[in-house]
Amino acid sequence: MMMFDGSIVTTIFGEFTPLAPMIVLILGALVMPAVFFASKRRSAVAATAIAVILVSVFFNILMMVDGYQGGYADLFAYDAFSGVMILLFQIVVFVTALVSVSSSETTRMHYGAFNSLLLSASVGMMFVATASDLITIFLGIELASITSYVLVAMKRSDPRAAEAAVKYVIIGGLSTALTLYGLSMLYGVAGTTNISDIAAALSTQDFSWAFGIAMITMIAGFGFKIAAVPFHMWAPDVYEGAATPVSMFLGTGSKKVGFVALFKVFLVIFAAASSTAAFATEEMQYIFAIIAAITMTVGNVVAISQNNIKRMLAYSSIAQAGYILIVMAVMSEYALASGMFHMFTHVFMKGGAFLIVGALITVGIGEKISDYQGLLKRAPFLAIAMTLFLFSLAGIPPLAGFTSKLFLFSSAIYDGGVMTQWIWLAFVAVLNSAISLYYYTRVVKAMLIEKGPSTERIKVPHTFTAAIVFCLVFVVLLGVFPQLIMDFCADAASVLFGG
Amino acid sequence: MFIEYTWLVPLVPVLCFVAIGFLGKKMPEGGGPLAVFGALFACVLSVLISYEFFTSSAYADPGYVTAQITWFSIGSFDINIGYYIDSLSCLVMMFASFISTLIFVYSIGYMHGEGAKKRRYYAQVSLFLTGMLGLAISSNFLEMFVFWEAMGLCSYLLIGFWGFDHPKGDDATDVAASAAKKAFLVTRLGDVCLMGGMFVLLYEFGSLDYAAVFDASAMAAVDPSMIMLGSLLIFGGVIGKSAQFPLLDWLPDAMAGPTTVSALIHAATMVKAGVFLVARCFPLFTQNPEVMLFVGVIGGITAFFAATMALNNMNIKKVLAYSTLSQLGYMFLALGAGGYMMALGMQTHDHHLMAIGAIGYTAGCLHMVNHAFFKALLFLGSGSVIHSTGTEDMREMGGLHGKMKITSITMLIGSLSIAGFPFFSGFWSKELVLETVMHAGDYGAEGYLFTIMWILAIVTAFMTAFYMFRMWFMTFKGKPGHGTEHCHGESPKSMTVPLIILAPFAAALGAILLFGFDEYVTIGINHVGEFQLGSGHGHGLEGWLEDIFMSIYTYLTIALVLAAIGIAYFMYSKMSVDPGKLNKNGSSMIYRALSNRWWFPQLYDQIGWKLGNGVARGVEFVDTQVVDGTVNALSSAVAGSGDSIGKMQTGNMRDYAAVVMFGIVSLFAVMLVLFYFMGGA
Fold first, then answer.
1. Which domain holds residue A421?
2. Which helix or strand (DSSP H or E) is residue A460 part of?
3. CA spacing 20 to 30 A to B155: which of A282, B125, B392, B639?
4. CA B354: distance to chain centroid?
C-alpha cells in the first residue's frame, strides 16, 4: 500500500497540491457539457460526474489521513480544518449528483450544464474552506452563489422556480454587496487581506467603530448564506421553488459555506485578539448568541404552521442553523468541534429527508404533508427512513442528531469544567428541540399511522434508494460511534484555534 | 459467570426485533414464537444473573456490580456504556421479562387474526421489551435515556398500531393516531426536563455514571441546591413517563392500542420506568427533603384524582387505565414519604427515622412488583373478555361468569389483590404504603402535607375497591348484556394459560416477597456511609406482622375495602341500589366532571393546540407581515410612493430586502446597547 499515501498527490499536483480536490472537480466541470453532447445520455454524464467526485474524495482523504499541510501563494492553505470541510462538501455534491440523474425535477435539455454548474458550485465552497485570504473567501462564496442561482432557475417547468431564482439573485446580490462592504472595511482597519495578518494587526489595536461596522455587515452577508434570522426570508421560497436535489444541495451544502466563512474570519480574529481586553469579544459573542436564539426559535415556531414539506424542512433548516450558531456565541475549541460535527450530521439527516421528498416527487407524490398519508403501506422503506431522519433532526437517541446536539448543547454549558454564561442559550436550544418534535411528529403520524387514499406500492429510482441508504447508514452510525468523525472535527478545531 | 453476560439480556430481544422485522413474514404467526423466545431467554438469564449476584460477595459489599467501556467523550468527560447490577435492577429485570413472556404467549392467541400486521406487532413489542431491560441494567444516565426514548418511540408505534384500517372504522383510526401522538409528545415534554436534569448532573458531578453520582462524598461536595434542581428536573421526566399529575392525560387515551400493548405498558414496562428511575435516584433525591415531599404530593394527588375518574367510566380498559395511574400514584407516595423521612433523618442523624423511611422504599418497590402482576392479569383478562364479546363497554357485558369461568375467576383474584383484600398481594404492599405515609405526617415542618395525602390515600383505597368490583360485577354478574349474547365461550388456551399462571402470583407473591425476600429490597446507609440496596436486614415475618396488625389503621382500611365491595355488590350485582339515583342519572355536576376527566383534556387542548398553533401563526404573521409592513410603511413614507398595487406585482422582494436592512439596523442597535451596558469600547 506504499503508493497510496499522501506523496502520490504531491507527485501529481506539485505546488498545486493544496488545491488538488478542487482541480479535479474543475476539470470535471469543464468536460461535462462535452460528455453530454457526445453521449446525449444523462446517465453517462452522471457517471462521469460521480467518477470525478470520487477521485476528488480519494485525493482529499489521502491528504487528510496523511496530515498534509501546505499553502498556495498566500491565498489558499490546506490544513485539517479545510480537509474536513472539503469532505463535507464532497459528500453533499456526491449525493446531489447521484440523485439528480433520476429526479423528474432536474433539467433534461441542459443536463451537462447542470452537472458542470453543480461541480463549480462545490469548487467554490471548497475554495472558502481552504481560503486564507479575504479575497479568496469572497471569490469562493461568489462562485458558489452565482452557480446556485442558475441551478435554482434550471427547473424550467415550474413558475415557482423562476420566481425563487429571481428572489435568490436579488437578495443574494444585496448580501454580496454587504459582505464586500464589510471586507473592505476590515481591510481599511487592518491594512491587509490575509486573515492571519489581520488577526495579528488587530491584536495590537483597540476596538474601532469601523471594525464594528465591518463585523455587522459581514454577519449580515454570511447570515444570508446560513439563513439566520432576519436574513432568512429567501430560504423557504427558494427551497420550495428549486428542484429538490438542488434544495438539498443548498440546504446542506451552501448553508455550510456561510459557517465556514464565519469560522474562518471571526474565530481566527477573535482567537488572536482575545488577549486584548478592550477588543469587545464578549459583546460580539452576545450578538451571536441573540441571533442564535432568535434564529432557532423563529425557525422552529414557524415550521409548526407549514403544510408544504419542503417549506417545513426549510424552516427546520433555519432552526438548525440557529443551533450551529451556538458555536459563534461560545467560541471555544470544543464548541467548534461540536458545531462541525453537527454540520456533518445535519448533512445526513436533512439531506436524507430532502432526498425522500425528492424521490416521492419523482414518482408523482405531492409536497403536502397530507400527501404522505399511509406511506408506510405504499413504501415501507421510505416511510421508516424518513421517520429516522426526522427523529434524528428532533434529537432522539441513539440517532446522530441526538449525539451532535448533546455535544453542541453541552459545549454551551461548560467549557473546560467551568460553567459558561451561555447556559441560557443551551436552555433555549433544548426547549426548541422539544418544539421541533411537534412538527416532525406530524409528518411521522401522517406516514405511519394515518390512512391514505391509496395503498398502491411505490417504486422509487435506484439511485435515490442508494443515496437514502447512504445517509441512513451514517445517521445511525454517527449516533452510535460519533468518534468516527468527531476526532477529525476535534483536530480541525484545534487547527483553527492555533493549537 | 452470568453477570459478565448481562448485556445479552437486552441484546437478544433486540436481535429478535431485527429478525422479525426482516423475516417475520416467513415465520409462523408473524414471528410470535421468536418474540416469546427472546423474552423467555431474557427471563431465564435474568434469574441466573440475579441468583449469582445475590449469592456473590459483591451483594454484601458494596451492593452492586458494574462494568463499562467508554462510548464516547464529551470534551473532558467520558460517556460510558455498561451494566450496573443491584437488587433493584435484578427485580425489574425479572418481573419485566417474566410478565412480557406471558404477554407475548397470550398475544399469539389474541393477535391471531391480524394477518400480515403481526410481524410489525411482534417486532415492536420485542424492541419495547429491549427498552425496559436496557433501562434496568444501564450503568449511567445517558445510556438509561437512550433506552427510555426507545421505549417512548415503541409506545408511539404500538398505541397507533390500529392506525390503518382500525377494525372499528375511520373514527377509531383517528382516535388511535391522535392518542399515539399525544402519548409521544406528552412524555417527550417530560423527557426535555430529564435531559435538562442530566446536563445539571453532568456539570456538577463531571460524570453520568450511577456509581460516580451516587457516591456519598461526591454528593456532599456538590451544592445542594444544584442537586435539588437536577432531582426536580429528573422527576419532571418521570411525571411524563409515568403519567403523573399534571401530565396524566395521555395514558387513558393510550388504550387505543391493542389490549396486550396496554398490558405491556401498564404492567411490565413504560410507566414502571418512571418508578424505577425514582427508586434508582433515591440516594440523590433524599439529599433534599423538599424533593421527596414534592414526589409524595404529586403521587398522592394523582392517586386520588385518577381513582375518582375510574368511578363512573363504562369502558373496561379505561377503568383499568385509571387504576394504573392511581396505583402508580401510591408508589410515588410511598417513595416520597419514605424518602422524606430518610432525608430528614440524614440531616439530624436520626437512625430510627431513617429506618422508618427505608420502609417506604421497600413499600414502593414491592407495590411496583405486585402491581405488575395483578395489572397484567387484569388487562389480559379484560382482553379475553373483549376478544370474546367484541365490545369494551361494560354495559353490554354482564353475566359472563357462566360462560367464561377461567377469565372470571382469575380476574376476581386480580381484583381482590388490587383492592387490597386481606392476605392478597396488594394488601401487604398497600398497607405498608399507607403506614409509611401516616408516619411521615409526624415529622418536619411540612409533614402535615403527608397527613393530608394519607387521608386522600385512604379514600383512594376505598374508591379502588369500589371501582374494581363495580367492574367485576358489571362484567361477570348482573344482567347479560348485548355483548354477552355474542360471547362464544372461553378464549383459546394460549390466552387462558397465561391467566392461570399469573393468578397465583397476583394472589400470593406479595406475601412471599415481603416475608421471605424483604431483605433484598431494602435501602440503607452501609458502614462506609454509602447508600446500599439490600443490606441484608429484613424485618422478618414477625416484624412485618406486628407492624401491620398492631396498627388500628389497618383495620380501618380493611373495613373500608369490605364496605366498598359490599356497596358495589348491591349496586351492580344484586341491583338493589340504583346508582343512577346518586348522580341524578348522569346529570349531576360531579358526574359530568368525572366523565370529562375533570376537564383535563380540554385544558391541554387549549394550552397545547390552540396556544401553540396560535403562537406559530402569530410568529409567522409577524415574520412575514408586521416586520415587512413596518419597514414598508417606513420606506414608503420616506419615498412617498406607497403604492399597494405595485407591491402586489413585485411580490415580496422589496420586503425581503427591506427586512435584511432592518436586520442590520437592529444589529447595530443591539451592538450599541450591549456596548453601553457592558462598557466595551
1. 280-499
2. none
3. B392
4. 27
Q: What are B69's strand-pairing partners?
A: B81
Cis peptide before B246 (omega within 30 of 0): yes
> Does residue A68 form part of some domain?
no
Residues in A closer than 8 angstroms to B189, CB to CB, are 434
Closest approach of B429 to chain A, Cα-based (Å) = 36
Burial status of residue A216 (CB atoms within 10 A of its CB: 0-12, 13-18, 19 or more): buried
A375 min Cα distance to partner chain B (Å) = 11
Q: What is the dihedral of CA B55, B58, B59, B63, to 10 degrees?
A: -170
CB atoms B177 and A449 under 8 Å = yes
Half-sphere exposure of B226 (CA within 13 A, CB side): 16
Write the ipTM.
0.75
Round to whole Å and give the CA distance between A295 and A394.
16
All residues at 6 or more sequence positions from B622 whose CB lies less than 8 Å from its CB, including other chains: none
A430-444, B237-251, B387-401, B629-643: which range is least confident on average?
Answer: B629-643
B674 contacts on A by Cβ (under 8 Å): 283, 286-287
DSSP string, A34-75: HHHHHH--HHHHHHHHHHHHHHHHHHHHHHHHHT--EEETTT
Mean pLDDT on A147-168? 86
- pLDDT, mean over chain B: 82
Position B24 pLDDT exceeds 60: yes
d(CA A494, CA A473): 28
Q: Does residue B527 have a pLDDT over 80?
A: no
Q: Which tens digit of pLDDT belongs to each residue from B560-603?
A: 889 988 888 888 877 776 666 666 666 676 767 776 666 666 66
Return all residues near B477 (Cβ < 8 A) that are at least 6 apart. Answer: B398, B399, B401, B572, B573
pLDDT band for position B641 (cuts 50, 70, 90): very low
Is the pLDDT at B283 greater than 50? The verdict is yes
Of A9 and B233, which is predicted with more confidence?
B233
Cα distances (angstroms) measured from residue B116 to each of A463, B308, B538: 29, 40, 51
Which one-letter DSSP state was computed for residue B398? -
DSSP B65: E
**What is the 3-state composition of chain A as percent helix, strand, coil, each rounded to the nearest 5?**
80, 5, 20
- Coil/strand/helix, residue A384: helix
Using CA atoms, how far residue A351 sits from A126, A472, B519, in Å, is 19, 10, 55
Amino acid at B479: K
In a domain, A188, yes or no: no
Q: Give the DSSP letter of residue A275.
A: T
pTM for the complete prediction? 0.82
pLDDT band at B644, cuts 50/70/90? very low
**Number of domains forming the structure of chain A:** 1
Chain A residue with the nearest C-alpha to that of B77: A417
Q: How much is the pLDDT for B646?
A: 34
**B630 at A interface, C-beta within 8 A:** no
Q: Which three cell numbers stand for residue A128?
A: 472558502
Q: What is the mean pLDDT of the segment spanning A341-359?
A: 94
A344-382: b (≥16 Cβ within 10 Å) or e: bbbbbbbbbbbbbbbbbbbeebebebebbbbbbbbbeeb
pLDDT of B640 > 50? The answer is no
Q: What percent of chain B has pLDDT over 70?
A: 85
Chain A 284-313, CB below 8 Å of chain B: which residues?
286-287, 290-291, 298, 301-305
Q: Would A365 be classed as within a structural domain? A: yes
Q: Are residues B118 and B31 in contact, defined by beta-carbon separation less than 8 angstroms?
A: yes
pLDDT(B643) > 50: no
The answer to whether the beta carbons of residues A313 and A251 sit under 8 Å apart is yes
Q: How many alpha carbons fall within 13 Å on the CB side of residue B137?
A: 30
Has residue A413 been placed in a domain? yes
